[in-house]
Design a protein that fits this description.
By secondary structure, this protein is an all-alpha fold. It has 5 helices and no strands. 76% of the residues lie in helices and 0% in strands.
């Protein structure tokens, strides 16, 4: 029970994300999952200097990544998070404001 606070935060965050996704009508499609897996594959190839990998090869590698249950669930979550973030960006109003270091500290302490 040492991690009780950590587990509680995970559960609360899960329900917050689910609620926002429902309100914003965010749905994760298989195409979203496949595109995210391809992006991961592209990054992995790029790490080895392979920047011009053909789409067929990326798709095949992404398919193999998605065959692993652990990788698939992580990729689904990441794809969902990306769609959720985009939905929030589309609806949220962001007000840019310049503040001094002291003002920033004061704002951060209130949060």
């Amino acid at each position: 029970l040492e991690n009780k606070g950590y587990v509680s935060r995970i559960i609360v965050n899960f329900f917050i994300k689910e609620r926002i996704a429902a309100v914003a009508e965010v749905k994760i499609e298989e195409a979203d999952v496949q595109n995210h897996a391809k992006a991961i594959a592209r990054q992995q190839f790029a790490q080895y200097g392979m920047t011009n990998v053909e789409d067929d090869m990326l798709s095949d590698y992404a398919k193999r990544i998605l065959e692993d249950k652990n990788s698939r669930s992580r990729i689904i979550e990441e794809a969902g998070d990306a769609k959720l973030f985009e939905a929030i960006k589309q609806t949220a109003k962001i007000e840019a404001k310049s503040v001094s270091v002291d003002e920033f500290k004061s704002i951060a302490e209130k949060a």
